[in-house]
Amino acid sequence: MLRLAGVTVRYGGTAALDGVDLTVAPGERVALLGASGAGKSTLLAVANGSVAPTAGAVRVLGGSPADRRVRARVGTVHQSLELVGRLRVVHNVNAGLLADWSAARAAWSLVRPQGLPEVLAALERVGLADRAFERTERLSGGQRQRVALARLLVQRPDLVLADEPASALDPVLADRALTLLGETAAARGGALVAALHDPALVRRHCDRVVGLAGGRVVLDRPVAGVSAADLGGLYGAVP
Ligand SMILES: Nc1ncnc2c1ncn2[C@@H]1O[C@H](COP(=O)(O)OP(=O)(O)OP(=O)(O)O)[C@@H](O)[C@H]1O
Fold this sequence. Notes:
Pfam families: ABC_tran. One of its GO terms (cellular component) is plasma membrane. The protein is of the alpha/beta class. It has a domain at 1-73 and 195-239: P-loop containing nucleotide triphosphate hydrolases (Rossmann fold). Helices cover 36% and strands 25% of the residues. The protein has helices spanning 40-47, 68-72, 89-94, 103-111, 116-125, 141-155, 171-187, 199-205, 228-235; strands at 2-11, 14-24, 29-33, 55-60, 74-77, 159-163, 191-195, 208-213, 216-222. A six-stranded mixed beta sheet has the order 5-6-7-3-8-9, with helices on both faces. The longest helix is centred in the C-terminal third of the chain and has 17 residues, at 171-187. The radius of gyration is 18 Å and the shape is globular. Bound molecules: adenosine-5'-triphosphate. Residues 11, 14, 16, 34, 36-42, 79 line the site of adenosine-5'-triphosphate (ATP). Adenosine-5'-triphosphate binds next to strand 2 and helix 1.
């Protein structure tokens, strides 16, 4: 489903990833943990093809992550959300369907939202049906995070990548968001890889923990085998 072999990403003198080997199988729910700057976002960016490795090889769903057909099957909740603030919520959610559409249909969707029943159903699932026609920039940070989640739901990807998808959500909504991400991956027999900081969410929603430090994998274990001391090692102190 996802395979990184000896992947290094350099930004000038900094190695954001340094010789990372990682294989994720269908059905797995993997939590990426690590301190700020450890390389979590870079690993997700390499997996969705938005960053090319300086060295090493990446295979996603049997192909290259740069391949347009592969990218259409990979859904990402970005840390920066990647929403267009002046567009209405429905238009941003619609973008999850774009890969399946012709250019003409995509352009027309900006005038008249296409796939509306699906879009509204996704907004209902994230608790935002009543904000569907509002300008996205008027929503709170947590509401915007749920718009990005709804966009991923309508995309129905095989591989779900999420970069701190619950960082702006209250505990109940965070739990719901992780449930939806896991269900979305499971619906297509896929996998979930999520950068998370909350150990409680990790324990409830993931099977495996991959810990990064300084761009290297320093921990790779089933979640049941991860101790508070392991987490302390990743973050420099026991949380
Ligand atoms: N576009 C970039 N240009 C230069 N350096 C970058 C860039 N993106 C990331 N880096 C560097 O790569 C390293 C890893 O960054 P990354 O964003 O992957 O960490 P992270 O674990 O996701 O951190 P956080 O938890 O703060 O989001 C950091 O040292 C960062 O400064």
